[in-house]
Structure formats: C-alpha cells, structure tokens
Amino acid sequence: MAQAPTRAKRKNPVLRTPLPTLPPHARSRVALGLTAAAARGALELQVCRDCGAVQYPPREVCRDCLSSRLTWRPRNGDGELVAETVLRTAQELYFRERLPWRIGIVRLDGANLVVYVHESVGRVPRRVRVEAALDRAGEAVLIAVSPNGRTDLSADAKLREMTCDPRGRKILVTDGKTVIGQAVVRALAAAGAEVIWVGEAEPWKKIAGSATLRDLPQVTMVPLDVTDSASVRELAGEIGAKVDILVNTADCHRTSAIGARGALDAAQLEMDINYFGLLRLAKEFAPLLKARAADGPASSVAWVNVLSIFALANYPPHGTYSASKAAALSLSQALRADLYTAGVRLINLFPGPVDDEWDQLEMPPKLSPGALAAAVVAALQGSLEDVYPGEVAQDWLARYRDNAKALERELSEGSR
Amino acid sequence: MAASGYADVVLAAPVTVPYVRYSIRGAHWFIGRALAQLLAAANIEKERIDGLAVASFTLAPDTAVGLTQHLGLTLRWLENPPMGGASAVVSIRRAARAVQSGDAVIVACIGGDTNHTDSFRRNTSAFSQFAQDAVYPYGSGGPNTSFALLTSYYMRSYGAQREDFGKLCVAQRNNALNNPLALFKKPLTLDQYLNARLIADPLRLFDCVMPCAGTEGFLVMREGTARALGLPYARLLAAIERHNAFPDDPVQFRGGWAIDRDELFAQAGLRHDDIDFVEVYDDYPVINVLQFEDLGFCSKGEGPDFIRANSFEVDGTFPCNTSGGQLSVGQAGAAGGHLGVVEAIRQLTGQTLGARVVDARYGLVSGFGMINYDRGICSGAVVLAAD
Amino acid sequence: MKAAAKKRKTKEAPKKTNQKTPKKARTTAAEPANDHLRGWLRMLAASPRLRLVDLTQTLSPDFPPIVLPPEMGQARPFRMEQISRYDESGPAWYWNNLSFGEHTGTHFDAPIHWISGRDLANNSVDALPVEHFIAPASVIDCSAEAGANADFLLTVGHIKAWERRHGRIAAGSWVLMRTDWSKRSDPVAYQNLDETGQHTPGPDPACVRFLVKERNILGFGTETIGTDAGQAAHFKPPYPCHYYMHGAGKYGLQCLCNLDLLPATGALMVAAPLKIREGSGSPLRVFAIVPMRRRG
Predict the structure, then answer these.
(1) Residue A150: CB partners within 8 Å, gap ≥ 6?
(2) Global pTM?
(3) pLDDT cut 90: percent of chain B above it
(4) B9-118+213-233 placed in CATH 3.40.50.2300
(5) Which residues in chain B have Cβ-Cβ distances shorter than 8 Å to A105?
(6) I need a labelling partner for A309 at 20 to 30 A (CA). Which of A202, B124, B159, B216 fits?
C-alpha cells in the first residue's frame, strides 16, 4: 500500500501544479515543548516534579496537584490504543486533499493521547508505541506505531507526508568535492534518489574521489560556486525547478583562532561560503522549492544544511569558522521560517569534528564522513529538523542545554 | 444533602427564531429577534427584563456585555455561560437562584448563533487550547472525530449496533415531521441511515447534526410574576450540573449525570417512570444513549437493550426529543441545548408547534457540551412540571 | 611620421554583453575622433616636449563613495584586505584582495550604466570601441564660479563664451568641467552634504543637450563625485548628464583631479576602463598627454 515512487512518472505539463496547503499550525507555547523534542526525533511529555503525574495535552500546571514544576521528559511511548476512527471528511484543505485519515486515542502513562495511527498497527485494542514526528507545518504530532521493530514512516502512504524521503526524488548536493560531500552523494544514491546533481566549483582543482562520483548513474556534475551569485543563479535557472531536496554541503573550514596573526581573507572566505553562500542559494532556490511543495509524490520537501556543533558554541581554535557556522545557523532559521510557509522542511545537522583534513588535529572520537552522510539520510527518511550526529555532538548539546555558559568556559580552556 | 430546592421558579414564553442553514446576519440579529419575540410572547416592555443569560459561539468579539448596549438593555443580572449544549440547563440553574433571591425578576434565557459558510471551520479550529494543540492538527475533524472515537468505543464495549442508533434517529425524524420549523422535512428510513456516506468511522451522515443559524429562548421568573402576567408556565422541580466528570475514564462512556442523577430525582420528588418525555442533548445518537443510562433510565451498558425495548416517537413508550431534536431540527450553535428546554415548555404548557405528548405532566431536559479535548466536559439536567 | 596605425577593429566580439536587439546604432564618435587622433599624433610628434599629467585620485579606503538613500542598493567603498606581506601567509610576496564598486573613486561610466542607454549596442565597458580610449579634451574652467557657489551649473552660455575664446568644441572630444573640487581633501567638504542633499557643481540640462546634439562630444568629465550636479535629482529630467549622455552612447568620468594643470585645449586624454564582462563602469587610470609650447 506504500506509494513511495522508485521512479516518478513524468508530469503532464498542461495541468496546473497544485499549491501547498498546511495542517493547522497554531500551538500554545507550552505545546511547543512537544515540538522542540520532536525536532530532535524524541517523544517528550510533561511530568510533574512534585507528584509524578504525566500531563497531556501540554499545560501550565499539574492537573493533579497544581504544581507549576512541570518538566519535559523523554518517554518510551508504550501505551494502548483504546479507540480509533477513520476520518472521511475534513474542514481544512490540507486534510481534505489527503483523506481518509486514521486517528486514535492511546492511553499512555495515565494520560490520553489523540494520535495518528500507522497503517501497520492492527485494530483496537492494541498495544502500541507512540512516537513524535513533525508534520508538514513543522509542528509536533503523535503517531502510534507497532511496538516492535523500527518504524518506517514512509511506508505509510499518509504519514510519508511527514518525512522527506529521498527515494524517488531529485536532489542537489551543493559541493561534491569534499569528503563529506562525496559521502552524502553516495548515501543518497543508496537511499534511492532518482537524480543527484552534484555541485562543483573550480573544476580545475581535482580532488581525490570526486571523479568516481560521475560513475554513479544518478549523478550529474553541475558547475556551482556558492561565492558567485551568477553561478548560483544560472544553476537555479537550469535545474532549480526540478530540485526536490537541496543538501548544502558547501563548507570552508579553516583553523584560525581569533588572535592568529595574518590575513582576514581566510575568515572572509569562510563567511563567503558558509554564510553568504547559504544566502545566495536561499535567494535563488528557496522560491523554486516552495512552488513545488505540493507537486505530486515527488514534490519538493527539504533543505538540508551541514552545519557544525561549533555553530552552537564557538570553538576558539576554529574561532572564525565557528562564527561563520553560527551565522549560517541564524540565517537558516530565517530560511526555515520562509520554507515552512510552503511546508518545506529545513534540516540542520550539527556534527562534531569530522575525520577530514581540517579536523586533523582534533582528538577522537571523530565522525566519519560516512556516518555523517548516514545521518543526513536518516533525517530525511524520518521526521526531524535538528540533528546532532555522533558522540561529540551529543555531548556538546547536552552540556549546552544544561548550562551554556559553562560550555563556553570549557571550550575556552581548550578542553572538549 | 440537597441545597434548597427550586420552589417558586417557573419557565415561560418559549420562542424560536426559525432556523436557516446559512445567514449573512450576525448573531446579534438572531439574539435580538429572540428577545423581541420574548417580549411579544410575554406582552411586556423591554424594561421589564432585568436579567439576561445568553449562550452563543458567534458573538465575538462581543460577549453578553456587548449585547446590553447593542439591544438597549439595562440589567442587574447578566450571565454568559460558555458551556455549549449545557448552557440552557446551566442558565436555568443560575436564573432560578437569581429570581428566588430577588436579584432579578424576569430573566431572559437565550441561546442562538448565526452560521456563515466558514463558521464551522472557524469555530472548531479555535475551540479550545487543548483542541488547538492536540486534536485539530490530527485531521481537523472537530467534534466528529471525538464522537466517532466515543461511538466506536461504546459499540465495542457494550455491543451496540448501528441499527440501535438508527432507531433513535428515525424516531426523531418522525417527530420532526410534525414540526414546521424543522430543517429536515423528509422521513428517514433505517436503510438510508445505515447506508449514508461515512463521516468518520463508524459515524455516517445522519449521525451528525446540521449546523445552522437560529435562536431558542424562554423566560425564568417566580410563579407570582408569571401569574400576574397571565403567562402559561412550567415549574422547575430540579436542576443539576457537573463539569469534567470522570476525568480518568480512558474514553468517555459516561457523563456527569451519573454522579448527580439521584440528587436530580430527589429534588424533583419523582421516580423515573414519572417522567413523561425526555429532551436529551442529541448532537450524536450515542450521547442520547449515555444520557438514558447516566440519568438512570437503564443501567450502564444496557442502552442497546433499552433502545430495542422502547419506541421514542411522541406517542411511543419513551417519547424522546419530541420536536425532532437537533438531529432533525438542526443545531443552531449554542441553541442546541435550549432547543430541548423550549420544546419541554411547549409540551408542558400545551403550546406545541407539532405533536403533543398526551397528558404530559413531567419532562426531563438534559444538556451536554464542550468537547474541550477528547470528551464533553459540561453536563446538566432539569426536571420541569406542568402547572 | 607615418600616418597613425591603421584602425584595427577588435576581433573578439564580447559574449553576452548585450542580449537585446540593439536600437539603430547612433553615430559613434569613432570616425571624427580618429581624424583628430591622427591630427593630434602629428602635433605631438611635432612638439618638442610632452608633459604627462595624472588626472586620477588614489584609490584608498578614505575616498568617499557616492551616497544613495538607504533603501537603495549601495555601492561599496574601496577596501583592501592584505593577503600576505612577506610573512607566513606568503613568505616572498605581498598582495591584497580588493573590494569596490564599479563607480568607486576616479571612474568611467559606460552607456549601459543608465536606463536611457540600456538598449544601445556595445554599451558595456567590455564592448566599447578601443578607439574611444584616447581622445582630445576640452577643459572648461569653472573654478571661480564653483568656489563661490557649490550648486553652480554650467550652461550653454558658459560653453559659448568658452568657445569664443578657445574655438568650437570638437566632435569626439571629452569636455572636462574644471571646478578645483578635487582640492577638497576633507571628505566632508568633498561630499558637501546637508539635510537637503548634496551640493556640488555640474551641467544644467540644456547644456548637456547642447553638448550631445550640437557638439557630439565623446563624454563629460568632472572632479566631483558625479557628472551631474549634486542637486540633479530635482532637475528635469533628473540627472540630465547621465540621462542624455548615456542615452546617446556617450561616456562619463568622475572624481578627476589636476584639471588645473591642463590647457583649455590641446591635451590628449587616455581613459581606458577595465574590461569587465557586462560592466557598467570601472575605476581606472586617467592621464593626459599635453604638448608643451616652446616657451613652456
């Protein structure tokens, strides 16, 4: 029953391309706690620190003891599906266009959760696991899935909407020169992408490994220099209207500390590629992605940026690089807000040091380019938008959320 | 443990502003016209109205406060119950204490709404914080979703069949055929009910009310006031309300009436078989069944048997929703609960628009409403008696 | 001396300089200029001494750029970032990265710079005929008037008065408006902005029309930041020098200096903009070759 295409049918050019509609995206502030966790792929619910009661729907004070000490905690999601229905009519355009929908009530930790029900789940009553996902408006929704095995959201014809599944899609990888870029291209090909355009700047500079990318049948090399507005515009004119997923791997990484003697030019190049490059890509490609967000089964769905955990907190030995990635992070939030008006998701990855030339002096554990590429694919196949792949990234994230000032000090003392 | 009773409180002047499917007018028009009809029915000047209880979903940005200026009312008692289909019985409960204590002399109780082509979507999308956060994003089904879940749970738990619900709907339609104001004019067969198009499994078209525009209203006063005005009236014998009952039930299979029904009948000084007709809140037939059970006419889970054993037409063994109920008359927003009160007053005062329940002395009106998240929060009931 | 080297048309046609169908090509100033060129080269050859005068301001970060309202796109001021200077970034060499706008410092305006010239053939700096990069210059001294009135406007009357003394302005020549404005080394005085805008001298609309239609000049040059007067936004049409000159396929030069070292006539000016693909102008080195009289 899954309708993920392995090869998209050619579109009838005489027909109007449908415009994107969105599911309802109004949420109270407390409810956004669910979204914050879902963005990382986690299910979290409020738990009362005084009496332990689990709260749902999200609220301001405990429904039992009225304590205000409610805290978001990860849950394993084990519950029971106690009621279900299939909606055949809907008031909102988004749902009207996608009827029918299977909805249910899951009893979990003493709370009642209204959920989507994955088609692999049998009829009520049924033990299920509840997961959080992001819907097309970027808001958290709950999904009841089978308790055993890994969930494949894209195997459900409706819930596939919440993923950015690369299978059958046309993808632009902005820089195929770097080891990360090459790994991403290979991983996307293995995940079933139909076409992968691979951006190449300065073709006179040959990098080991990039030649063999051309051997992949999905791959087409295209000229793309994100420091050159004309280059970005030209590529957008040529292929932009076909791109379903844009993966921005363009990266300039130098290991300049702020007090280092010498030229500003390295820092300027980092900004020109990492920040202004993103801006140039956004100006040209974002409108094109938004226009095709409802263009059939192989619609445009996602924008992926490979940032760095250094974007979250500056790593002084790579001070100017960190700042350029932080600038890119901020800009990508603006881009995310823009893309979400059409239901296109923006995914940021924040890897720690990668096993490449510029992180040569960083101590292990380091992320392999293959592992980073796998994280890109997993993010697209799942339903998340903030990805922290690898141990170092997870460690820094935990420290940042616990006490950002402490992390700042730790990094400035040269420890990690 | 009953509080002081409702002695000396009466209800009079049942009025209806005829329902229309859509209207370009605002809610203020429907409420204002109901007030005008109340004045005409009671043959009083507007200044005699010193208390007002209004329920409406489409008054925004106004509340009842705005109506005072809009309609030119100077009041010493004002209520704006936000309880949906329970607002009528709650209005009665509040107004009764007002007139008993002398805080007001004549209280107008009005429920009414307009209905624009986008009213339903607007109202459901911003219905409550929990609905916004945790229901509406899952298909925007509004109450259809919640009642589908509830109905399927009830059917699975107690063996109810669709034919059982269908019987109620067909009976109410038969009642409506005598009601000139009902929006549904054609008979409904069980076959049509069973095979109508699906709305949300297992609910089909005739399980759902038709939202429309309209108003229902009546006056609450002390018996002496009604006599002085020469108005026919029904007495208030008992009133209960309960909100957020049984919060730990995983799915709502019983409502607040179950907690207070003994109190209701004790206040009224009646037994169940003294009741000559019921006007139950009927936005979906499963709620009728919950009310039959929770008000004590049968035990929990015996609803299907109760339905099979009875007939619900005006001349049946258990007359129910004698003007057709919301399912066959229409749901004019917050007037859904007032519909039953107004019909009960008509039955008990001999002013029916359609068929009469013969020798009706006692009627029970039940209200329900506000699917805040996954269940109806508000419930209440009153028992009325003919003079 | 042999006649000047035969005219060589540049073989390489620039790619994509001008995609639109060009309007009927107006009479270029090439043919008369080449006649003059041959004439002037003969005169230079006959002259005992030649003096070369640099008419270019130094490109530095201090040089003020043109100011537009903030909602408009802004031209970059000149900036230099050192790449290395015989150090660990480059042990044996010194070099810089530059950033600037096409219209920063002493610079050349091509017809494509203005909307009135946008459809002309060969209207961008990479497509201009090379023959136009060396041409005679007529220098009109307005230094006294400009010194007394920052908003001084050059009129047809001024031109005709000048011509009565120095002869008719030749077709295909540059007309340079000397105001000694370049001697204002303080950028505040150079920009001369107040709350009503910029106050710098320039030509009035009728003067520009006259120079274009009646004299068919090659281009107009000034010492100020624009070829138009500082208040030209309010003229009819606005910015008449840009509008009429570029609309007729003529050029502009701005931020010149040392015009006070040039004779009223007789100087040959070299002004060759950078060959930028589809460029609207560029900073450049401008200098004049002045034949010295026996007495000088």
Answers:
(1) none
(2) 0.87
(3) 94
(4) no
(5) 149, 250-251, 374
(6) A202
